[in-house]
Design a protein that fits this description.
Blueprint: H1 2-22, E1 37-42, E2 47-52, E3 62-67, E4 77-87, H2 93-104, E5 111-117, E6 120-126, E7 135-141, E8 144-151, H3 162-173, E9 175-176
Length: 180
C-alpha cells in the first residue's frame, strides 16, 4: 500500500511541475514550433518567438502577413510586425513612452496599458503618430529596449484581424534569450 501512495505522490508532483512549466515561457528555452507555427530566433538581439507558418520573415526584423513580392516602394505586405532593439539608456519602458508622448504634446488620442511579456513589464501604446496606424509595444530586458510595431493597426475593425492574431501569438510566445 505504501508503494502505491508513493507512486501517486510522485505522479502528482510530476504533473504539478509539468503544469507550471506549460504556463510560463520563461523556462530558459524558446517555445517549440508546431504544424501551424514557425520559430523565429534572433540570437544577436536576444529573443525568439512563434509566428504563423503562412507568414514570411524574409525581410530582416519583419514578420509579414501576405507578403507582396513585387519590386518597389514600401509595399511589404498587407500587414507586418517590425522589431527594433536599441539601448535603453537606464530608462524603463514607461519612461520611454512618457518621453515620446510629452514630445508630441497635446491633441492626440493616445491609449496605453501595461502587460507582462516573458516576465518583463511592457507598455502597449495605440495612437502614436506614424506613417501607418500602429500598435507599439515597449519592453526593457537587460538594458535593451525592444520596440515592436504592429502595422497597420485598425482598432475599430469588425472582428479579429490576422494582425491581432499575430499580436496575441507574439505576446504569448516572445522569449528573451540568456545573454552570456
Amino acid at each position: 500500500m505504501k508503494t502505491k501512495q508513493k507512486l501517486i505522490l510522485i505522479l502528482m508532483l510530476i504533473l504539478t511541475m509539468l503544469a507550471q512549466a506549460s504556463c510560463s515561457n520563461s523556462t530558459g528555452a524558446c517555445p517549440p514550433p508546431t504544424a501551424e507555427t514557425k520559430l523565429l530566433t534572433n540570437a544577436e538581439e536576444g529573443y525568439c518567438l512563434l509566428y504563423p507558418a503562412a507568414y514570411s520573415t524574409t525581410v530582416p526584423h519583419y514578420i509579414v502577413i501576405n507578403p507582396i513580392s513585387a519590386p518597389g516602394g514600401d509595399a511589404i505586405g498587407d500587414a507586418w510586425l517590425y522589431i527594433a532593439m536599441t539601448d535603453a539608456s537606464g530608462r524603463t519602458a514607461a519612461q520611454i513612452v512618457d518621453e515620446q508622448i510629452a514630445y508630441l504634446g497635446d491633441g492626440f488620442n493616445i491609449k496605453r496599458f501595461e502587460v507582462e511579456v516573458d516576465g518583463e513589464q511592457a507598455v502597449v501604446v495605440d495612437g502614436l503618430p506614424a506613417q501607418d496606424s500602429a500598435r507599439q509595444v515597449f519592453i526593457i530586458h537587460n538594458e535593451r529596449l525592444y520596440n515592436l510595431f504592429f502595422m497597420p493597426w485598425y482598432p475599430n475593425a469588425a472582428g479579429p484581424t490576422p494582425l491581432e492574431d499575430l499580436y496575441t501569438m507574439v505576446m504569448d510566445t516572445l522569449h528573451f534569450l540568456t545573454q552570456e
